[in-house]
Design the sequence.
C-alpha cells in the first residue's frame, strides 16, 4: 500500500492535515533533544520527511522503512540521508546503536507494534530516548465528534480528489479509529521496558507525542554477542542500504 501512495505521499499529507503536520513534526524534533554527534533512528521513515530536520541539523540519522517505494522516493529527494530497508519488528541493527529513536505516524501501521517497541528498546543505548508521534484520541467530546466526522466522511472524499490510491486513506481513517488511546500506548511502552513515559497532546489529542527513556541499568552492552550470533549486523545493514 505504501509503495503505491509513495509518489504523492507528502503532498497528500499536507492537504489532509491542513498543514498541521509541519507543526507536529517540529514538536517531535524538539522532544528528541538531540544534537550533532548523536546517532538517531527514524523508524518507519517512509520518504524521509520525518528524518529531514535531523539531517539538516548535521545529525547522523538513519531513515529505516520496509517499503522500497517510499524509500526510493526519499532517496531521490534527499540523497544525503541514509535510507535503510528494514522491518520494525526485526531491526537490522546491533543492540545499543542509537542515542535516540523515533517513529512518526508509523507505529500504528506496524503489524505487531509492541514488537517494534521492544526492538527500538534493544537498538537504543541505555539512557537513550524514544519519541513517538501518532494519531490518538481527541480529549474533548465535541472535538472528538467533529474529528470523527472529518475522518470517516470528509477525509475519504478529499482523498478521492488528491490521492493516487484513495483506498489507502479509507484504511488511514479506520486504522486511526482502531488505534489505542494515549494512556493505553503509554502502558504498552512501560510493559515493553521503557521508563519515564510521558505524553503530550497536540491539536486537542488528534496527535499524541509520547516520550520515554531506556533504563540505564539494563544488561551490559551485548553488541559483541549480537555480532557473533548474526555474523555481523553491520554486514546485514550494508545489504539493506538504499542507493
Ligand atoms: C504514514 S508513513 C510515515 C512516514 C514518515 N515517518 C512520516 O512521518 O511521514 C508509515 C510508514 O510505516 C512503514 N511501515 C509499516 N510497517 C512497517 C514495518 N513493519 N517496518 C518498517 N516500516 C513499516 C510504511 O512502509 C510507511 O512508510
Sequence:
Amino acid at each position: 500500500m505504501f509503495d503505491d501512495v509513495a509518489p504523492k505521499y507528502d503532498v497528500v499529507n499536507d492537504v489532509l492535515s491542513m498543514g498541521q503536520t509541519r507543526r507536529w513534526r517540529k514538536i517531535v524534533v524538539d522532544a528528541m533533544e538531540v544534537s550533532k554527534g548523536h546517532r538517531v533512528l527514524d523508524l518507519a521513515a517512509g520518504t524521509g520527511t520525518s528524518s529531514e530536520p535531523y539531517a539538516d541539523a548535521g545529525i547522523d540519522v538513519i531513515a529505516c522503512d520496509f517499503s522500497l517505494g517510499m524509500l526510493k522516493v526519499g532517496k531521490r529527494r534527499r540523497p544525503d540521508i541514509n535510507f535503510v530497508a528494514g522491518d520494525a519488528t526485526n531491526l537490522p541493527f546491533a543492540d545499543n546503536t542509537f542515542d535516540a529513536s523515533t517513529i512518526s505516524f508509523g507505529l500504528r501501521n506496524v503489524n505487531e507494534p509492541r514488537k517494534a517497541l521492544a526492538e527500538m528498546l534493544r537498538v537504543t543505548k541505555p539512557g537513550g530516548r524514544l519519541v513517538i508521534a501518532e494519531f490518538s484520541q481527541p480529549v474533548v467530546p465535541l472535538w472528538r465528534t467533529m474529528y470523527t466526522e472529518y475522518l470517516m466522511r470528509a477525509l475519504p472524499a478529499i482523498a478521492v480528489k488528491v490521492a493516487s490510491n484513495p483506498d489507502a486513506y479509507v484504511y488511514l481513517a479506520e486504522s486511526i479509529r482502531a488505534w489505542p488511546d494515549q494512556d493505553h500506548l503509554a502502558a504498552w511502552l512501560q510493559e515493553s521496558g521503557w521508563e519515564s513515559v510521558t505524553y503530550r497532546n497536540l491539536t486537542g489529542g488528534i496527535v499524541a507525542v509520547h516520550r520515554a527513556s531506556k533504563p540505564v541499568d539494563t544488561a551490559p552492552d551485548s553488541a559483541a554477542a549480537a555480532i557473533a550470533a548474526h555474523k555481523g549486523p553491520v554486514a546485514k545493514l550494508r545489504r539493506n542500504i538504499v542507493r
Remarks:
- Confidence is low (pLDDT under 50) at residues 222-237.
- The chain has two domains: 5-136+180-229, 139-178.
